[in-house]
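User: Reviewer 2 asked us to show a designed sequence for the structure in our supplementary figure. I'm pasting the structure tokens here. Could you produce the per-position amino acids so we can include them in the response letter?
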């Protein structure tokens, strides 16, 4: 994959900056928005494709998988807020990988980049769930034993405030979850996307890097008009995700 190191502005209003937009439309490209630093945070968007391209990895032996439409938008809002908070952070986007699934093998360009040097303290992958997913948001660490997904889910729910809930994995390696919100209450549930076979999360743990996987329904990613405009809920998620990340790494 061709690597682009982008250092320009992130957003113009509720859209990606015009300098970034052409890169997001590419195929088989890796886009890094840095600079990254040792002990910082790396956000990852492994399943990006331009709006209207519904599948990636279409030339892989598996025949491909669904793309995470507009997940990059809340990741950009998160990165912008992390910078405002003074948290060293970078974003790595795998733009329409056509012959492989970027976060399922440790030798992929995406995995090598997000897990490479300078070694981050935390990897947070941003994904998109379908409209029929049972939870608005899911947070999991997969099998990464160095991560506290339930603690992070509670931080995220508290930052999001009323009107949002998060299904957070109870412990790494489990499908069990607790649905948490801004109130001190929790309801048992089961994750639809536990990410127990996601290589990037497990490989991160082997390197001593905490890792989280966030799944967000369309309300956080799409206005339903085929545009690349950040929704109000998407901005709330991005900014709240950044605040939760800052609190998590500080704790």
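Assistant: Here is a per-position design you can include in the supplement:
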């Amino acid at each position: 994959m061709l690597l682009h190191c982008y250092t320009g502005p992130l957003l113009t209003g509720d859209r990606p900056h015009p300098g970034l937009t052409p890169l997001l439309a590419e195929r088989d490209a890796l886009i890094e928005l840095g600079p990254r630093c040792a002990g910082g945070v790396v956000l990852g968007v492994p399943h990006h494709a331009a709006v209207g391209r519904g599948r990636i990895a279409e030339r892989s032996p598996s025949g491909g998988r669904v793309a995470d439409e507009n997940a990059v938008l809340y990741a950009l809002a998160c990165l912008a807020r992390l910078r405002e908070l003074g948290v060293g952070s970078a974003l790595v986007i795998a733009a329409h990988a056509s012959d492989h699934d970027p976060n399922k093998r440790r030798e992929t360009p995406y995995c090598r980049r997000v897990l490479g040097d300078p070694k981050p303290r935390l990897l947070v992958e941003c994904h998109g769930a379908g409209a029929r997913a049972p939870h608005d948001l899911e947070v999991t660490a997969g099998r990464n034993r160095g991560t506290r997904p339930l603690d992070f889910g509670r931080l995220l729910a508290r930052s999001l405030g009323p009107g949002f809930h998060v299904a957070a994995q109870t412990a790494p390696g489990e499908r069990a979850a607790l649905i948490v919100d801004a109130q001190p209450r929790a309801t048992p549930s089961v994750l639809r996307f536990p990410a127990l076979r996601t290589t990037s999360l497990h490989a991160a743990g082997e390197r001593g890097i905490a890792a989280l996987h966030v799944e967000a329904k369309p309300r956080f990613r799409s206005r339903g008009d085929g545009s690349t405009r950040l929704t109000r809920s998407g901005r709330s998620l991005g900014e709240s995700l950044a605040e939760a990340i800052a609190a998590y790494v500080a704790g």
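For the response letter, you might also mention the following. The chain has a mean pLDDT of 96. The chain has one domain: 2-250.
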